[in-house]
Automatic annotation (TrEMBL):
It catalyses: ATP + protein L-histidine = ADP + protein N-phospho-L-histidine. It comes from Mesorhizobium retamae. This is histidine kinase. The chain crosses the membrane at residues 12-34. SMART domains: HAMP, HATPase_c, HisKA. Residues 295-347 form the HAMP domain. InterPro entries: HAMP_dom (IPR003660), HATPase_C_sf (IPR036890), HATPase_dom (IPR003594), His_kinase_dom (IPR005467), HisK_dim/P_dom (IPR003661), HisK_dim/P_sf (IPR036097), Sig_transdc_His_kin-like_C (IPR004358). It comes from the Bacteria. Residues 367-575 form the Histidine kinase domain. Pfam families: HAMP, HATPase_c, HisKA. It is an enzyme of class 2 (transferase). Its EC number is 2.7.13.3. The keyword Oxidoreductase does not apply.
Amino acid sequence: MLNGLTLRWRLVLAFLAVSVPPVLIASYVAAVLISSSFKHNVERWLGRAADFLVSETMSSEDEADRAASILGASLPAHGGVLTGEVNENSTSLRVYSDLLSTVGYDLVLIYDDKGNTLYRFGSAALDMPLPRSSTRSVFTVTKDGKPGLVVGATRLFERDGQVLHVLVANQLDDSFFATPRAKTAIIIHAYRLQGNSMIPLVREGRGDPLTISDDVLAVLNRGDNYTVVPDRSSGGLATGYGAIRDDSSRLVGIVTFGLTARRPVFEQLIDWRLFTILALIASSLSITVGIVLASRLTGPLQGLKRGLREVASGNYRLQLPERGGPEIAEVASGFNIMTRQLERLRQMEGEMRRREQLAALGEAAAVIAHEIRNPLGIIKTSSQLVAQRSYLAQPDERLLGFVLDEVNRIDRLVTEVLDYVRPNRPTMRAVALDEIVNKAVDFMAPELDKRGIARDIAVTNGLVVEADADQIHQVIINLVLNAMEAMADGGRLTVKAEADEEAAEAVLTIADSGTGMEPDVVHRMFDPFFTTKTKGTGLGLAKVLSVVEHHGGAITCTSALESGTSIVIRLPLNQKKSAND
């Protein structure tokens, strides 16, 4: 399936594969770790909170002990005032009970050593014998027919030889834990342990009554102050359980502490719906980024692909922009070098083919020229003899003159063909190119002046080349003649000769301001027998090219209609010899 996809979509899928799964896995691991850490910290906090509530009951015991001590110290010096009907309205201690009531105490008892109640404030009745010693504890009581717990203390005093006991206690009910009352997210429950039953006493918050498991009871009965139980069934928060004990360390009640949030924020991180949304968002971002990056990466590759198609179709002049990063730019640069080399090879192949054709044509022309020259000589000799030995009438003599003229013209043409096909080998020696150029231009100066052609001559002195001076002189003459014919109404001839030190070549430029040539004419101007003139053999520029190539040089031409023509000849410099040598 992937084999049918383009490189762009393969990159998009690869980017999607390497980005989305790691993001999801990392997010899941982070969510699990954070959630676990959060739950652990919450569990510790809930346990500490439950223990704090238990410690608050102990603080209430201490406060009740101090209240009992104050009340005992305030008893009359003689106990007579405590005798009579036990009624909270029938004694002068009412002011003390009212004061204790305002600070939250629900039960005040004064009794003697025999258990006779001398004073009572509050309707709660202890479910146990009245303490006979000073103690601080949690007492089980019954109030209005319902079991409960009170947190208090007893103090022992003597008055007129009579042993009296004062008990001050605060009932463990909804008003007992006043500190977190305003925190609606907090759930506080308190239970009295009665046999195997848990009787609810306090219900702060919105939570439902809890079912305390046997495991929790076992832990608290073992002596632990608190325990924490996670809610493993619904994924909610844990609950802290604190032990309420009496003065004999017997478990008499349990206080619970929890939160109303069923699923905390960090717990919700591992919800599959959240990860589905996260996967969709990550996939969308990955696909978008992947498409952008793939476009930037595959764009230059698409250009290379189109370039290869162009080259396969034969367009070797194509050059691609070198962009798309260092690597792709390097590939594009290599592609451009390859196309330039292919174009050069094609040009060389075409040149070799042209030379082979010209060589074959030259051989055929040489054979034909030889075959023509022999009978042509006989015709010329016979015609001359006839003209010398016979008296001819005027018309016949005129016709015979035409025959001799055409024979001479054909003989010159055959001679030019043979000179082109079998040129004279150049006599190479070190010559000063500036002298040859100046000599040729001076030779043509009268004709140039006659035609009204101005001259710009810029020749660097001391340009020494290895060449045949006569053949180079003839090349310059031929090029100047062509320039003159292109400027029939006058113009400007420019001749420059300078050195190209980097290429170790002498550069000779002959340019005119004439009519110029069309591109197809420029392409064929050095072909043998090709000419645009009404008269001519078409071998002049072909001879120029042959001479330049035999000198190891090169010739190029640039021309445009109505803009003139410029011909550049490059000849190797002779760096070992000078013209004087």
